[in-house]
Design goal:
Largest sheet: 8 strands, mixed
Structural class: alpha/beta
Strand content: 15-25%
Mean pLDDT: 97
Low-confidence stretches: none
Radius of gyration: 21 Å
Number of strands: 14
Helix content: 25-40%
Distance between the termini: 14 Å
Bound molecules: adenosine monophosphate
């Protein structure tokens, strides 16, 4: 069975076609600048073949038509006909309190996703647009499944997801911690359980990329996570501030007359590694600049990893100990210096890194020494595969 996995934004659409027979990636690609037809284009990859084409895409409907054309014709052709696509799985950023697992998309689910746009204004409306466009292009009979980034975190207890503000804001606006990257945390914690042959573990999963989050996963269930109402909470990221004293926000707004929209942009786009270093949001550039003597770049690297170390310590406390730590995401999978810093800081928890293994990049590998009490693993994430697996499980029912 072949499943198309979709990650739709308001002006972009990423796709992967996965053959579930052996879980093989057949093709993937990106439609960009949807809504700007004079500039829109598709980049399609099938094995070693790469195809790039400018195609007018006024809406997501034309983007899906371009995806079908790329999959069924020309050099990047991998299937004869769209009827070979049995189901479509969508990544959805926000499922609110409503969805603790993936679901088959029907009118009610679509309406819920649209309504939850209040909590994810940039993402949920785009997901709904893409789902409706899929119905049009692939037909009503091709089943579509939604996998929510927030679903894995729905098992958090109240004490972990509530904020210490008047309760009425939870009742009125559903303000609470929802978390993000849930599909990734679920994938790597599930994979670790498979590798160790044991689900009853206290695991700290560190998804460290441009956006970063950490989760505490006990016996396969998330009990706490660092991202909050939005993906701004937690610790310093590429361009996001992470958690800070809320008074900092009101202080700057009062001093500079900054509007809520401007403040949002400062905290989401101009902070983090970029804001502190002034060099880049990319950890590779920041580390290189720091090593070349740039003090602010060195500080940015230290701040981020110090904050991560503190989260690791606090999540060990939340679970009454820790059996394993997993690193994933662009930094988590590749950046040995970040892993080393965090390991040095939290070594008291009972683990020892094997420096040679820690130097390996981008591979699934245990990087702690054989006698380390706490296991440390690098596990490359694969959110698309988990969405495809959920889709298969739901449509097979
Ligand atoms: P992501 O958002 O998961 O794509 O991760 C982006 C972050 O991962 C950026 O800060 C990159 O610097 C970092 N990253 C990606 N690839 C590498 C690599 N090969 N070595 C070191 N850092 C990397």
């Amino acid at each position: 069975m072949k499943i198309l996995v979709i990650n739709a934004g308001s002006s972009s659409l990423k796709y992967q076609l996965i053959d579930m027979n052996g879980e093989v990636l057949i093709a993937k690609g990106l439609c960009d600048r949807i809504g700007v037809p004079e500039n829109s284009n598709i980049e399609h990859k099938a094995g070693d073949v790469k195809v790039a084409k400018d195609i007018p895409m006024p809406t997501h409907v034309e983007a899906f038509e371009a995806v079908i054309e790329a999959l069924t014709t020309g050099e990047g052709k991998v299937i004869d006909d769209i009827s070979e696509i049995s189901a479509i799985g969508h990544r959805v950023v926000q499922g609110g309190n409503l969805y603790g697992e993936s679901v088959l998309i029907d009118d009610k689910v679509l309406a819920d996703i649209e309504q939850l746009a209040e909590l994810a204004p940039l993402h949920n409306p785009a997901h709904a647009l893409a789902m409706r466009a899929c119905r049009k292009v692939f037909g009503e009979n091709v089943p579509q499944v939604a996998t929510f980034d927030t679903a894995f975190h729905q098992t958090m207890p109240e004490k972990a997801y509530m904020y210490g503000i008047p309760y009425e804001y939870y009742e009125k606006y559903a303000i609470r911690r929802y978390g993000a990257h849930g599909t990734s945390h679920r994938f790597v914690s599930g994979r670790l359980a498979e590798l160790l042959g044991n689900k009853d573990l206290r695991v700290i999963t560190c998804h460290l990329g441009n956006g970063c989050s950490i989760s505490a996963v006990k016996n396969g269930e998330c009990v706490d996570t660092s991202m909050g109402l939005t993906p701004l909470d937690g610790f310093m990221m590429g361009t996001r501030s992470g958690g800070l004293d809320p008074s900092v926000v009101t202080y700057i707004m009062e001093k500079d007359g900054t509007s809520p929209a401007e403040m949002n942009s400062i905290l989401n786009k101009k902070s983090g590694l970029l804001g502190i270093s002034g060099v880049s949001n990319d950890s590779r550039d920041v580390i290189a600049a720091g090593e070349a003597g740039n003090k602010r770049a060195k500080l940015a690297f230290e701040m981020q990893n110090y904050q991560i170390g503190k989260f690791v310590g606090s999540y060990a406390a939340a679970m009454g100990g820790v059996d394993a730590i997993v690193f994933t995401g662009g930094i988590g999978e590749n950046e040995s210096r970040a892993r080393k810093y965090i390991a040095n800081m939290t070594e008291f928890l009972g683990f020892t890194l094997d420096d040679e293994k820690n130097a390996i990049r981008g591979k699934e590998i245990e990087i702690s020494t054989p006698d380390s009490k706490v296991k440390v693993w690098v596990i490359p994430t694969n959110e698309e595969l988990l969405i495809a697996r959920d889709t298969l499980a739901i449509v097979s029912k």
